[in-house]
From TrEMBL:
GO terms for molecular function: metal ion binding; methyltransferase activity. SUPFAM superfamilies: Homocysteine S-methyltransferase (SSF82282). The lineage of its organism: Bacteria, Bacillati, Actinomycetota, Actinomycetes, Propionibacteriales. Its cofactor is Zn(2+). This is Homocysteine S-methyltransferase. Zn(2+) binds at C218, C286, C287. InterPro entries: HCY_dom, HCY_dom_sf. Keywords: Metal-binding, Methyltransferase, Transferase, Zinc. It comes from Kribbella turkmenica. One of its GO terms (biological process) is methylation. Coiled coil: none annotated.
């Protein structure tokens, strides 16, 4: 299987806002907004398996592929240390996450399933990091290697706030010889938290350390639309994982209740994004979304919850 064969040639359902769904809809405590500690006990693993099963049902109903992304957005050294995990425990957690999505893939009974190892930002996903590419490559290398050694088909850097850290993740993935996707987040004006245009960030990466695919996550489609200018770079976009809410990142950060948004607006505005970036093929959700939102994006009935 070549890198291009891993995802190209079909469409893929992926999951929604894992952390917000578990925290607000299921009442599961997630210290530091981290889901990977759920892998440590039977109840947590069961909750994750049930969560992924909903998206397998959507992929089956839509007759498309299923991309299962590991619950490892916070499973990097700084966040792990805050949660009491040393390097060995963190390595075990990342490997256990891959084992869990592999088991969920087997449960699905679907033929077209891929396993994606999620890498999150070193800092807050809503705040631009002060980093450089070399430091980011060194920092993310251990998590990437844990995920690759456990058998992921690709690595996906999500909620990147500026180009340098994303370049670092790509370098770590290249060292581990694994395909890599990078999804940036944008503010309400379509710019990254760093102030870069999405086009600038992707162009900078293409010059320095091209990813295999790009995307946008953790932003409502109405926030993504201002970033799309019809230029050729938009054809490099493959992933779209929108937020349910039209609120800004700052507003969402201050919320103590879940804003699950307007599903009709989410679908309509996502369709507008798809009309301007026709290469998008991996569709799921991010903060505030659950399987009901993702089913609506795919035009199928929502699975039982």
């Amino acid at each position: 299987m070549t890198y291009s064969d891993v995802l190209d040639g079909t469409r893929w359902v992926t999951d929604g806002g894992l952390e917000t769904d578990l925290l607000f809809n299921h009442g599961i405590d997630l210290p530091e907004f981290a889901s990977f500690p759920l892998l440590d006990d039977t109840l947590g693993r069961t909750a994750l398996r049930r969560y992924y099963a909903e998206y397998a049902a959507i992929a089956g109903a839509a007759d498309v592929g299923l991309l299962l992304e590991t619950p490892t957005w916070r499973a990097n050294p700084d966040w792990a240390q805050a949660l009491g995990y040393n390097a060995a425990a963190l390595d075990r957690a990342n490997r256990a996450a891959v084992d869990l999505v592999r088991a969920s893939a087997a449960d699905s009974g679907l033929d077209e399933v891929r396993l994606s190892g999620v890498v999150g930002p070193r800092g807050d996903g809503y705040v631009a990091g002060d980093t450089n590419a070399d430091a980011a490559a060194e920092y993310h290398d251990l998590q990437v290697r844990s995920l690759v050694d456990a058998g992921v088909d690709l690595v996906h850097a999500m909620t990147m706030t500026e180009p340098a850290e994303a370049i670092g993740v790509v370098r770590a993935a290249r060292n581990a010889r694994v395909p890599v996707a990078v999804s940036f987040t944008v503010e309400t004006d379509g710019r990254l938290p760093s102030g870069n245009l999405l086009s600038e960030a992707i162009t900078a990466m293409e010059r320095t350390a091209p990813a295999d695919w790009y995307g946008v996550n953790c932003a409502h489609p109405t926030h993504v639309l201002p970033a799309l200018d019809g230029e050729p770079w938009t054809e490099r976009l493959l992933f779209l994982r929108p937020n349910a809410s039209t609120m800004s990142h700052q507003e969402l950060d201050a919320m103590e209740v879940l804003d699950s948004g307007d599903i009709d607006l989410l679908v309509a505005s996502t369709n507008r994004v798809l009309g301007q970036a026709g290469s998008l093929a991996v569709i799921g959700g991010c903060c505030g979304t659950d399987s009901r939102h993702v089913a609506a994006l795919w035009g199928v009935a929502a699975p039982a919850r």
